[in-house]
Write a structure and sequence with these properties.
globular; 206 residues; binds ligand NAX; binds potassium ion; Rossmann fold; alpha/beta; YjeF_N_dom; NAD(P)H-hydrate epimerase; 7-stranded parallel β-sheet; metal-binding; nucleotide-binding
Length: 206
């Protein structure tokens, strides 16, 4: 039977691993981003040798940090990247800020999303939803809830707008074809499977 962890249990496991000195938060984020890229190419192998365009949406927390890692990894593989940010990048938590700085070194730039009005996103082969993960605390702002995601839609950890613990209905959420979570499934992933979303659990070495 699949072992399922709540978001609080997941945070405790991550914190214990980091506190033990066995692994840094930054390294966990790198493994998380790599896990999403690997699952994406395992799901759509035709994309491995045919880099196209990817839209990456990065939120204000560590889910956004995963997004910056994924953008960098796709850029290194020759993809045309369009990165969008929500919130003030100057207020990102430390590991996400470090990956935003690495992204800036790629010299591609980014576009802020308007939280009130949905931004028109370009056509793309992949869209990566790294806006909110297990840290979502309230309904999505209207400018996010109304986004139309192009191409194959990949949710990082949790589709933005969904409560990872499936305990409360937080309102509209972004759609996903593939959702890549880390270490163990969370309660929402059982619901997502029933909705036809492919779930991949990436091993991040915890
Ligand atoms: N070291 C770590 O902690 C790791 C974290 N990971 C990623 O980090 C995620 C959790 O990161 P966080 O705890 O930073 O949480 P999130 O990145 O999910 O979101 C937290 C941020 O969103 C804001 N927020 C919440 N709901 C909002 C709403 N409706 N509108 C606007 N702002 C809202 C909060 O104020 C906070 O700034 C996981 O889902 C996973 O993707 C992975 O990188 C693995 C390692
Ligand atoms: K997400």
């Amino acid at each position: 039977m699949t072992e399922i962890l709540t978001s609080a249990q997941m945070r405790a496991i991550e914190a214990a691993a980091i506190d033990s000195g066995r692994v840094s938060g930054l390294e966990l984020m790198e493994r998380a981003g790599r896990g999403v890229a690997d699952a994406t190419f395992a799901t759509w192998p035709e994309l491995i040798c045919a880099p196209g365009r990817a839209v990456v949406l990065c939120g204000p927390g560590n889910n956004g940090g995963d997004g910056y890692v994924i953008a960098r990894l796709l850029f290194e593989r020759g993809w045309d990247l369009r990165l969008y940010t929500l919130g003030d990048p100057a207020r990102l938590p430390p590991d996400a800020a470090a990956n935003a700085a690495r992204w800036q070194a790629c010299d591609i730039g980014s576009t802020p999303l308007d939280p009130q009005t949905p931004t028109a996103l370009p056509e793309a082969d992949l869209s990566i939803d790294a806006l909110f993960g297990i840290g979502l605390t309230r309904p999505l702002p209207p400018g996010v809830a109304g986004l139309r995601l192009p191409g194959h839609r990949i949710a990082v950890d949790v589709p933005s707008g969904r409560d990872a613990d499936a305990a409360q209905d937080l309102g509209p959420a972004l759609p996903a074809d593939l959702c890549v979570t880390f270490h163990r499934e969370k309660p929402v992933h059982e619901m997502l499977k029933r909705e036809g979303v492919k779930i991949v659990v990436a091993d991040i070495g915890l």
